[in-house]
Write a structure and sequence with these properties.
about 350 residues, alpha/beta, Rossmann fold, 12 helices, about 40% helix, globular, binds nicotinamide-adenine-dinucleotide, binds UDP-4-deoxy-4-formamido-beta-L-arabinopyranose
Length: about 350
């Protein structure tokens, strides 16, 4: 088992990934600015993982900091080495993820996502830590021409957010060069949704959500009157867009499989789609969610949203081949766990109560 640094570990993907990594025996240091997350999430990670306060001190160290602060990052690596528990690998999740915001504030996205990654990589190199799992995104494929999407398909991002993810992949590939001294995995997530089955952690957007699942949940719990369905005239069987929704716990297990494989030095460079290979339309999601929750989801079909693509669907076979991972949870699990999280935490983590 290893000591790992998790950047952005308090976020949606980070908190669930920490639960899985702790359960597998890894010790974690989280660095997070809490720009889009809450310390309550990390307290709940400790709770779910059954850590006593003493174990927590050893196994789940939380540091509030920014990945662009090279001094702060350096101290994390130095302190770990001083304690005789050097950081052996990094799971790099810290970043900004709103497509819309990236269009209005592209420089902010290049600074946090690209410059932040550069800072992290230079400090890793300085401390001789060359094992990293990077949170890339299916968004880098842009508007693909054929489905399912394979890793060798063209990278052609259509928004600044996607461009920053593609840029970090290029940076990692340049860093590897032909020396093969790094161990790198770029995980291209499709649509991560759902929540931990305990209902203690889940997705908690700070502002008005843009994504389908948080919006469906908020309609179900009456925080919102209805869901706008973006377009009913797409070239799909029911006219609404199709996506590959992946349960957050499957995604978290994908990180465990990737970091373990890298730590075993099975590969130097992996680029893997992390999806299910099964797609659902927006209307199918509404229908599944209604069945699982017993709540009615009022909706109205409106114009298409700029930047959407009709279909996004992964070919996840490489992840199965290279790191022996595949998604095991289905759409019913996704709807049940999303609804459980929403029901138990109607206003997300803002109740300020650590349970
Ligand atoms: P999130 O916003 O919940 O988590 C990101 C975390 O990074 C947050 O806790 C935030 O506070 C932290 N952070 C932001 N800027 C930081 C900085 N400068 N220094 C330190 N911490 C910082 O988002 P998420 O959904 O958990 O996404 C995690 C990563 O996965 C992101 O890089 C995102 O781009 C990528 N990703 C997400 C999705 C998705 O749909 N959720 C899909 C593909 C890729
Ligand atoms: C899903 C479907 C919408 C909201 C985004 C990012 C992508 C990645 C994952 C980070 C689409 C429809 C949505 C609504 C709707 N994130 N929809 N009404 O756009 O596939 O992907 O998250 O890397 O980069 O772009 O996800 O959840 O926003 O939308 O009809 O109010 O739901 O049109 O078809 P998307 P989403």
């Amino acid at each position: 088992m290893a000591r790992l640094l998790i950047t952005g570990g308090a976020g949606f993907i980070g908190s669930h990934t920490c639960v899985v990594l702790l359960n597998a025996g890894h010790d974690l240091v989280i660095v997070d600015s809490f720009a889009n997350s809450s310390p309550i999430a990390t307290a709940r990670v400790a709770n779910i993982s059954g850590l006593t306060p003493n174990q927590e001190k050893e196994r789940l160290v939380i540091i509030e900091g920014d990945i662009r602060d090279e001094g702060a990052l350096s101290s994390i690596f130095e302190n770990a080495t001083k304690q005789n528990q050097p950081i052996e690998g990094v799971i790099h999740l810290a970043g900004l993820k709103s497509v819309m915001e990236s269009i209005t504030q592209p420089l902010k996205y290049w600074d946090v996502n690209v410059n932040g990654s550069r800072c992290l990589l230079s400090i890793m190199e300085a401390h001789n830590c060359r094992t990293i799992v990077f949170s890339s995104s299916a968004t880098i494929y842009g508007n693909p021409e054929s489905f399912p999407i394979a890793e060798v398909d063209p990278i052609q991002p259509i928004n600044p957010y996607g461009a920053t993810k593609a840029a970090v992949e290029s940076m990692l590939s340049n860093l590897q060069g032909n020396k093969a001294i790094w161990h790198i995995a770029c995980l291209r997530y499709f649509n991560p949704v759902g929540a931990h089955p305990s209902g203690l952690i889940g997705e908690d957007p700070k502002n008005i959500p843009n994504n389908l699942f948080p919006l469906v949940c908020q309609v179900a719990i009456d925080r919102r009157k209805l869901l706008n369905v973006f377009g009913g005239d797409w070239p799909t069987p029911d006219g609404t867009c199709i996506r590959d929704y992946i349960h957050i716990m499957d995604l978290a297990e994908g990180h465990l499989a990737a970091i373990n494989s890298l730590l075993r030095k099975e590969s130097n460079y992996l680029t893997l789609n992390i999806g299910t290979g099964k797609g659902y339309s927006v209307l199918e999601i509404i229908n599944e969610f209604e069945k699982t929750s017993g709540e009615k989801i009022a909706y109205k079909i409106v114009n298409r949203r700029d930047g959407d693509t009709a279909i996004s669907l992964a070919d996840p076979s490489q992840a199965n081949k290279k790191i022996s991972w595949r998604a095991t949870r289905n759409i019913e699990d996704i709807c049940r766990d999303s609804w459980n999280w929403q029901r138990l935490n109607p206003t997300g983590f803002t109740m300020d109560k650590v349970i």
